[in-house]
Write a structure and sequence with these properties.
single chain, 116 residues, alpha+beta, 5-stranded antiparallel sheet, 5 strands
Length: 116
């Protein structure tokens, strides 16, 4: 049976793909946030300093309403606990969150309109 964190990450992926999660930029470069009434989820990457050749880990961090870290999970930990293809799926989530937070589609639409 999948852990609750597996389910949370899977739902974040699904709802983000459906456009049902609003991702925002934060004051930290490369960190994106989705706010919920009593919690927030931060999505980021973390460089692996032990093995610099390995790609960075994707991190989902849950914060309470005071901003305290409640829990976090990485693609590496998810994969080790049986979440199939965690790196690819979390990478997809990160890229979609980044695109939504930065307004990439709106920017591209504007550029296309300018270019005719």
């Amino acid at each position: 049976m999948a852990s609750k964190l597996h389910v949370l990450v899977q739902r974040l992926i699904e709802r983000t793909d459906q456009g049902k999660v609003s991702w925002e930029v934060t004051s930290q470069s490369g960190v994106f946030m989705a706010s919920f009434p009593a919690y927030s989820v931060l999505l980021s990457t973390r460089r692996n300093y032990i093995d610099p050749e390995r790609p960075p880990d994707y991190i989902v961090a849950i914060h309470d309403e005071e901003g305290s870290l409640v829990d976090e999970i990485s693609d590496f930990t998810l994969n080790a606990s049986g979440f199939e293809d965690a790196f690819t799926r979390m990478g997809h989530l990160y890229e979609e969150a980044r695109r939504k937070a930065m307004g990439v589609n709106k920017i591209i639409d504007g550029l296309l309109a300018e270019l005719g």
